[in-house]
Amino acid sequence: MKLLFSCSLLLFITAACLSGSASSRKLRGISSSYKRFYRERRSFLCIDGSRVIPFEQVNDDYCDCEDGSDEPGTSACPRGRFYCTNLGFRPHYIPSSRVNDGICDCCDASDEYNSHARCQNSCWNLGQKERAYVEGQMRTLDEGLQLKQQLIEEGVLLWREKQAQLRELQQVAEDLQIKLEEHRRRKQEAEQNLKALEAGHTRVRRQNSSESTFRLLDSNNDGSLSVEELQEKLVLVQEEELLLSEEEAVALMGGGRQMDLPMFQQSLWDVLNTEERVKIRGSVDAEDPHLKAADTAAEREASSLKKVEEAYDTISMEISDLRTKLAIDYGPDWEFLFLNSQCYKLSVYEYTYTLCPFNQVTQESAAGTEVSLGSPLAPLPEMASATIARAAVMIMEWRKTLA
Amino acid sequence: MATFTERMAPVLVLWLAVFLSGTWAVDKGNFKTCDQSSFCKRQRALKPGESPYRALLETMELTNTRLTLQLINDNNKVRLLLELYRLQGNMTRVKINELKPLKPRYEVPDVLIREPPTEPLSLLSQDENGVVLSLGAESQRVILSARPFRLDIMEGRDVVMSLNSRGLLAFEHLRMRKDTSQADPEAEKKEEAEPETQPEAAKEEEKDEAGMWEETFKSHTDSKPNGPSAVSLDFSLPGVEHVYGIPEHADTLRLKTTENGDPYRLYNLDVFQYELYNPMALYGAVPVMLAHNAQRTTGIFWLNAAETWVDISSNTAGKTVFGKMLDYVQGSSETPQTDVRWISESGIIDVFIMLGPTPKDIFSQYASLTGTQAFPPLAAVGYHQCRWNYNDQEDVAAVDAGFDEHDIPYDYIWLDIEHTDGKRYFTWDPHKFATPKEMLQGLMDKKRKMVAIVDPHIKVDCNYKIHNEIRSRSFYIKNKDGGDYEGWCWPGSAGYPDFTRTDMRDWWASMFAYDQYEGSMENLYTWNDMNEPSVFNGPEVTMHKDAMHGAWEHRDVHNLYGFYVHMATAEGLIQRSGGVERPFVLTRAFFAGSQRYGAVWTGDNAAEWEHLKISIPMCLSLGLVGISFCGADVGGFFKSPNTELLVRWYQTGAYQPFFRAHAHLDTPRREPWLFGPENTALIREAVRQRYTLLPYWYLQFYNAHRTGEPIMRPLWVEYPQDPATFALEDEFLIGRDLLVHPVTEEGARGVTAYLPGKDELWFDVHTFQKHNGAQSLYIPVTMSSIPVFQRGGSIIPRKIRVRRSSSCMTHDPYTLYVALNPQRTAEGELYIDDGHTFNYEKEFIHRRLSFASNLLSSVNLAPDAQFSTRSWIERIVILGASKPSKVILKTDDGQESQVEFDFDASMSVLTVRKPGMNAGADWSLMLQ
Question: What is the pLDDT of residues B290-311, one digit of tens each?
């Protein structure tokens, strides 16, 4: 059985050799998977089934089939294709129009069997190069994967760290919130206390003090206020350090230069009490120690509240920053997290480009003018991670050029 | 230099601002109307009437070759000299100059290919009123009337053409400026010496008008040191209602009357975003007009290179079709007549009257004067891929690869100005095109070629070799004060070489030598742009008229500048190969005779349907005056076409002689594969149709080169007696045998094509459907339709194996398409040569293919020529055939063999399978 098979194989090979060029012509430009359509018979059926032609008309340099299937090895059919076997490299199809056009397309030179083009079989060399290239690619890929794994680990750690940081900040913020409320309450109480004291004090002043105030102002006790006396004792509320000018003093006395008690009670006394623009130097409030204590307490509460508020705002901002950063898509495993807060530079002709991923890209010319090219990798949560991956590849290449 | 740059910077900025502002129309205010051109205004103010010119018959001299006599202007007594020649080939030349001009007036050199050979004139009769001369046989005569002077060319009893019949002959004689002539005793002495020719009294009558001695347009002043110098003459054409030609205008094929607007203007200008359907001047000027009616075609060639205006009027222009019909019925109509008047700013009157009588006679007459279309390398007839700009070598390689990837053939890829080192022509950008030879070799490996731009404005830069050489040889055009003329163009400040000088042109040509033009190789060809010349800061964006070309003013030579640039460049490409290789040079500016140097295109058009449409009449008009190698930027230069427009433009451009896509720098990329697979397929199909027809196209170029006949021609050229064809401009013929009606309407569902010839048959080249002639045929169309018809009675060779480029198809076999006429006969030609050298003058195959009595045979038309080809005949398709019982091939060795065939009874198409004879051999094929 085995012997019989070998013999018939031998016979077949011999037959193939004897039939010689005709047979090789018939088989030209056909891939092994299509060879079944081209078995030597009396007739050939176009592969699209449209027509039957004598088998001699296969690869006879005349297009008979609509689909070009009768001329796989010549340029005769407009829509035909030629199979380059390219032993040692990758096989592929070329359009029939490239068969015998004087340009070497198949690396095995099989497309230029009848042209002046001197094509050499370069498939083995190409294959070598290809294999070397693929190996190189594999190595690079491995290295890249390792690097990626490392970046993922770093990224995960960093991510957790940031998450922890966020939680911590949130805790602090909560504490501050409680403090804040406490301080608000205390400030309110102090203010209410102060207001109540002030209201009582003012009433007392109103009833009793017009004469005493007059006396206080009347430095030389002559029963009449002069311009000089007013300048000495009164000041503007906003500008305590400055003396009243003579004109201002005269104006306060209604245009005269002297003022007796009844006149004082009718005019200046009201001004001093109702309008809050003029007051007695050294302030009459200082006189009341209760009032003074209440006032100090209120101020103290206000200032400590302000401090707590500021602390709270700062923390809130930090939280919001961190949240924004954490909202960016750093890839499914946070492998691109490390790019945040890094910047890369590239010089092209007279321009220097700076790329800060997730932030911005700028172009600086040699003359020093800087132009923002936008923020291609800016916080865009919807940005596909594939885009970021492409950008990262670009950055890695960029790094290589820098190195 | 620095100060100049500083001074010019604002101009450039302003210019750029205009350029970028995106107002999509020409700024008409930048260009003169007739009223703003003082000589045109002066001349046009003259109204028809009795001419002041009188022929002095006693001065007549008649020699064997010419007649001369003097004309006198009775108003100013200035005398002119008239020369009249009868030229070989049924032409008459009329030359009028001042008898004694103050200084010589410019006569255009280099445009005529030789001094036109004359034929004897004979005097038939003479009396005191005039003379009658015979123009040879066919009862053609010239009647010269003396008082007033006029010429009438007669055929039998019919007037074919009259000159000065409306009395508009005008000749502004050169004169001394009044304020200077008083102070110039020499001039006065001269006047005393010749009192009879220029009496004082007569001379004083003439008044100086504004604009005679100086003229200002916008901010530019023309110093006009020679004063007024215009010439003008009128021509009447009885029986003529259709006139054509005088390109370049973006207007209809049939010229319009100009009474209600400006005349047609001929003045080479770089018009930014030109407007359609008006008589404004464009980039080129060919002062040739054809007049046609059903009986006769005549032509007028006004050989003058100065600014020229052409007025056209007609006595039937205002009439409606109904009015004309009424006239006809009542028999009361006066003969229709077209009157034409030519006005030029300087020079002389030198006019060639071509008497036809057929359109083809006109083409051969004009060709005998100015030459024929240069025979281009075959590749130049293929498809050209251009863009401002392909950015760098990688870009070029990527586009080249794109064509292979999408299986679209092309032959040339083009580089615009950005490829240079700072707009210094003959150089390469050191970063983007660092290794041009590598790039060119890459293209050569694919059997493809490149065109790089070389403009005539030369950057003023003392580190630039070309500039230094031109300056040191004093080759630059001079300004009126004698310094080198400088203008603003792409490189900034630029000089303009004086191409009117032979020594300058020789030097320029030598710059294309491979050792001079660094980075060039034999597959690099040239494109001359901006050669009107374009001067951004000059009057009307061109050169000051008072700039000097040696002794002549730019005014005298303006329209010749681009012609000379083109000439010198083509010569350079010939010389670099030692005279072996045919050049290919594209030019934007042109003049009469430019056809001898290469191709032209219609300049900076726009991506609009109207621009697609007008590409047809614009190229038809150019073809009529000898310039066959014409095309428009496919896709439109300015703006971005939508895909429908782009596809339709490819389909139209594939059937026009020069087939190049081009686009402005600011437009999105538009390589054929950028619009989705469907549109890529449509464009691929259009380009492939072009390539299958290359054998036919190449034959048309060969014939145009031999005969001067247009390649792309209006229907009336082949059907001169059919008035229905006279104004057709949405369809055209390629040669005699292909009729093309491209789809140029947006969203078209169908087109109506007029198929001419009442005894003709026309076969749809795609479906083989047969149609009768002399009918308007509605053709439904889809996006893939390009309505093309083959004339019954013709044989068209094709190569249907479309490859990467035309060179790849050199050895491919032919398919012959035989379309039978009602008499069941057909004729055609087959032309083959090496496709790129001047050896075609001796080495070529030219065969007549004819079909009659069921016998198709190939006969050698050039038995003395030698050429052999590997190409063979792979298929013969006979349209309108009946089924034979057998087909027998007889080869030149006497052998007979039976050939297989296939017959499609439904379409009456017989396909003969693989007859296999060599394309250069004698053979016959018998249908039995």
Answer: 999 999 999 999 999 999 999 9
B350 counts as catalytic: no
Q: Active-site residue among B152, B529, B722, B812?
A: B529
Quick check: A101 and B445 CB within 8 A?
A: no
pLDDT at residue A288 in the model:
67
- Whether A102 and A114 have beta carbons less than 8 Å apart is answered as no
- Is B604 among the catalytic positions? yes
Give yes or no for A316 touching B (CB within 8 A).
no
Which residue among B802, B812, B914 sits closest to A62, beta carbon to beta carbon?
B914
CB contact under 8 A, A98 and B804: yes
Q: How far is A322 from chain B (nearest CA, A)?
A: 42
pLDDT tens digits for A27-63?
Answer: 799 998 899 899 888 899 999 999 999 999 999 999 9
Is some CB atom of chain B closer than 8 A to the CB atom of A60? yes
Specify burial of residue B606 (Cβ count, 10 A radius: 0-12, 13-18, 19+). buried
| Mean pLDDT confidence for B170-194 | 64
Q: State the complex-level ipTM.
A: 0.88
> Rounded to whole angstroms, how far apart are CA atoms B850 and B827?
4
- In total, chain A counts a number of residues equal to 403
Under an 8 A CB cutoff, do A75 and B812 touch?
Answer: yes
**Per-residue confidence (pLDDT) for residue A147, from 0 to 100:** 85
Q: Do B874 and A61 touch (CB under 8 A)?
A: yes
Catalytic pick among B604, B633, B737, B812: B604
**How distant, in Å, are the alpha carbons of A189, B16, B257 from that of A181?**
12, 65, 94
Contact A205, A274 (CB under 8 A): no
Mean pLDDT across the stretch B864-881? 97
Give the closest residue to B795 by CA, choosing from B751, B839, B858, B705: B858
DSSP sequence for B334-380: PPPEEEEEEEESSS-EEEEEE--SSHHHHHHHHHHHH-------GGG
pLDDT at residue B560 tops 80: yes
This prediction has a pTM of 0.81
Helix (H, G, I), strand (E, B) or coil at B20: helix
Distances (CA, A) of B577 to A63, B837, B928: 40, 10, 52
